[in-house]
Amino acid sequence: MLDKRRFYIDGEFVGAGAGRDLPVIDPATGRAVAVIALGDAGDVDRAVAAARRAFPGWAATPLDTRLGMLRTLLRLYEANKSEMVAAITMEMGAPASFCEEMQWDAGRGHLEATIAALESFSFETPDAGGLLLREPIGVAGLITPWNWPMNQVMLKVAPALGTGCTCVLKPSEIAPLSSMLLAEMIHEAGFPPGVFNLVNGDGPGVGAALSAHPGVDMVSFTGSGRAGTAIARAAAPTAKRVTLELGGKGANLIFADRDAEAVRGGVLGCFENTGQSCNAPTRMLVERSVYPEVVAEAAEIAASVPVDLPGRPGPHIGPLVSAAQWDKVQELIRAGLDEGARLVAGGPGRPEGLEEGFFVRPTVFADVTPGMRIAREEIFGPVLSIPPFDTEEEAIALANDTPYGLGNYVQTADPGRAVRVARALRSGMVHVNGAGIGYDIPFGGYRQSGNGREGARWGVEDFLEIKVVAGL
């Protein structure tokens, strides 16, 4: 078992103060593969103090120097690809091929996009009668989730360091191994002591202490709405900036004139990463005239999705990340049955032959109505709900009937309809006819999906204050 009970504070790997041990569980087996220490408020104090000491010098460091260190970090990240893929596979249970092609690559892509954004970013611009300055906000507390570990860590760490902020990272205690490997790369890249710090811990311990800390100028959080609300409350007395990237309940609007691959893309998109993505298209809204055939097609596709161990070759999905997540998904599948949805694929329990670990059956429900839990709650598992609609207006109303507003999807051959529907959907992102998004776009949502945007120049702006200097 790996011993990962050290933190990274003030340029050194150090022991926890009085932290208790926590096992890191392999989701494919349910057995411990590593142990970390859970930090406490004292560890946060040490890390924040180091970040505050380092901030003046790092903020004054020329941009070219900061960019040079980020480019060195990019080279190290690419050189240590196999180690990072192995770490994510171990902590997440995601297939190794998916970790390489998607999970690892997300970290690389966001680091590259941040570097490109900084290369052309204007930190000083003339303004009427003066000068407009964009300056680093200060010490940033970064709190990240387990479902896309390097995606979310790099979306925060890269712009924080690139803008001249210093930071304290609290990665998810469920999937901390990849972040600890990244800390080693940051150390090797030569960032000054205190510029980047890492403290492992849970939300009530380290997360709460970081959010409320008077020495922290900003908190950037990605995770659940419940935790995001708690962080905003904890941060309020010190009036620090809080950016939140929270949950989603994406709608995929399938019109009768959809492309032949629309249903397949929608089902596989929902099941990607074992359904553990906040922007997954988990509600497939289908025009009634094609509803029976789309339901049958979705059921057939779901039944063909392989579920297997992370190390097995070929495209497949792995387990959920934890026993708690498995229990939650099972509860919601049973709620779908109890509330009258029609099960057309999958269902409760584990797939045959995968009795160990946290594996689930890819599941599809038809005849879903808006009041059902599976239609309203973020399940975070491979569970697809399919309600029908009769008109374009009804489809839009159903899609918007959610407290979330992260990503939605539209499938139609009518360009005019695509524009109308995309404009009417209340979400930060809309994908038309399977179009993807790159690393140079603003990622974020409306309403209870959070505030602020991450990615490229939008992520850079999140870590900056604006100063107006009159008379220059």
Helices and strands, with pairings:
Elements: E1 2-4, E2 6-9, E3 12-15, E4 20-26, E5 31-38, H1 41-60, H2 63-79, H3 81-92, H4 96-119, E6 124-127, E7 130-136, E8 139-143, H5 149-163, E9 166-170, H6 177-189, E10 196-198, H7 203-212, E11 218-222, H8 225-235, E12 241-245, E13 251-254, H9 262-271, E14 283-287, H10 291-304, H11 323-338, E15 342-347, E16 361-366, H12 373-376, E17 383-386, E18 388-389, H13 392-400, E19 407-411, H14 415-424, E20 429-432, E21 450-451, H15 456-462, E22 464-470
Parallel strand pairs: 1-5, 8-9, 8-11, 9-10, 11-12, 13-14, 13-19, 14-18, 16-17, 19-20
Antiparallel strand pairs: 2-3, 4-5, 6-7, 7-22, 12-21, 15-16
Helix pairs in contact: 1-7, 2-4, 2-5, 2-6, 3-4, 3-6, 4-5, 4-15, 5-15, 7-8, 9-10
* Shape estimate: globular
The CATH superfamily label of the largest domain reads Aldehyde Dehydrogenase, Chain A, domain 1
Number of helices: 15
CATH class of the largest domain: Alpha Beta
Uncertain parts: none
- By CATH, the architecture of the largest domain is named 3-Layer(aba) Sandwich
The percent of residues in helical segments reads 40-55%
- Kindly report the spatial arrangement of strands forming the biggest sheet: 10-9-8-11-12-21
| Overall tally of structural domains | 2
What do you see in this structure?
There is one protein chain. The chain is α/β, with parallel strands linked by helices and 472 residues long. The protein has 2 domains: 2-246, 3-Layer(aba) Sandwich (Aldehyde Dehydrogenase, Chain A, domain 1); 251-432, Aldehyde Dehydrogenase, Chain A, domain 2, CATH 3.40.309.10. The protein has 15 helices and 22 strands. It has helices at residues 41-60, 63-79, 81-92, 96-119, 149-163, 177-189, 203-212, 225-235, 262-271, 291-304, 323-338, 373-376, 392-400, 415-424, 456-462; strands at residues 2-4, 6-9, 12-15, 20-26, 31-38, 124-127, 130-136, 139-143, 166-170, 196-198, 218-222, 241-245, 251-254, 283-287, 342-347, 361-366, 383-386, 388-389, 407-411, 429-432, 450-451, 464-470. The strands form 6 sheets. The chain has a 6-stranded mixed sheet with strand order 10-9-8-11-12-21, with helices on both faces. A 5-stranded parallel sheet has the order 18-14-13-19-20, sandwiched between helices. The radius of gyration is 23 Å and the shape is globular. The termini are far apart.
